[in-house]
């Protein structure tokens, strides 16, 4: 069972990102402050949930959280500063947007660039341990999925409505055959030499 938060002394926000491993589109991040007594049946790491489960949980989190915010860093910024720094920047932007500023941050993962004047802890697989990080993972994922599905209308060849920009074999093959869209990350190796092996085994 997931714990509500990492520590009890300070007002805490959980932070997570989505889209770090994608070939196209922004990286999104969310920051969420939950009430101390918050509990939501089924709330877990977004990767452990179905699309429908995430979509069902999102409005409840947004309604019941003390504060929440979602922010992004686009593909051009990712190419300029690299995806790791872009992930940190997206989290910083989400924290900055919170209506209530937290006194402590818990970050999913093992690295983070310190946010000014707010202490933090990095929690490996934190989205499967703490409800506030799990909530952030769901908001980041669902908001990004919605963004990529909207882009799909103008760029249907890449099937972003389904793959959301992740490097599926079909997505890589489309890039090789059609070329990059304006939303692809140019510093990412889209035409991976492993693609041929994937296609043989597909």
TrEMBL record:
The record's family statement is: Belongs to the RNase HII family.
For this protein, the Enzyme Commission number is: 3.1.26.4
Q: Has keyword Ribonucleoprotein?
A: no
Return any one Pfam family short name: RNase_HII
Write down the required cofactor(s): Mg(2+); Mn(2+)
One example of the protein's molecular function in GO is: RNA-DNA hybrid ribonuclease activity
Highest taxon of source: Bacteria
Write out the annotated subcellular location: Cytoplasm
Question: Per the record's keyword annotation, is RNA-binding included, yes or no?
Answer: no
Query: What name does the UniProt record give this protein?
Result: Ribonuclease HII
Entry's PROSITE patterns? Answer: RNASE_H_2 (PS51975)
- Say which species the protein is native to: Pedobacter punctiformis
Q: Which HAMAP family match?
A: RNase_HII_B
- Where does this protein hold a divalent metal cation? 16-17, 108
Major subcellular location class: cytoplasm
Question: Its biological function?
Answer: Endonuclease that specifically degrades the RNA of RNA-DNA hybrids.
- Domain RNase H type-2 span(s) in chain numbering: 10-200
Keyword list (alphabetical) reads:
Cytoplasm, Endonuclease, Hydrolase, Manganese, Metal-binding, Nuclease
């Amino acid at each position: 069972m997931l714990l509500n938060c990492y520590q009890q002394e300070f007002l805490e926000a959980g932070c997570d990102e989505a889209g770090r491993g994608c070939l196209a589109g922004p990286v999104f991040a969310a920051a969420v402050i939950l009430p101390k007594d918050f509990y939501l049946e089924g709330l877990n790491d977004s990767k452990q949930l179905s699309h429908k489960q995430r979509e069902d949980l999102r409005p409840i989190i947004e309604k019941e959280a003390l504060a929440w915010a979602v922010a992004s860093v686009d593909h051009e910024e990712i190419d300029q500063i690299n995806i790791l720094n872009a992930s940190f920047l997206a989290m910083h932007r989400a924290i900055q947007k919170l209506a209530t500023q937290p006194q402590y941050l818990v970050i999913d993962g093992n690295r983070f660039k310190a946010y000014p004047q707010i202490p933090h802890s990095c929690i490996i697989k934190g989205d499967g341990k703490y409800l506030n990080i799990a909530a952030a993972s769901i908001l980041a994922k669902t908001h990004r999925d919605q963004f990529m599905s909207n882009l799909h209308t103008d760029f249907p060849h890449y099937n972003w409505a389904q793959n959301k920009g992740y490097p599926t074999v079909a997505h890589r093959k489309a890039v090789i055959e059609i070329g990059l869209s304006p939303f692809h990350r140019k510093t990412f190796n889209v035409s991976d030499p492993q693609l041929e092996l994937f296609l043989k085994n597909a």
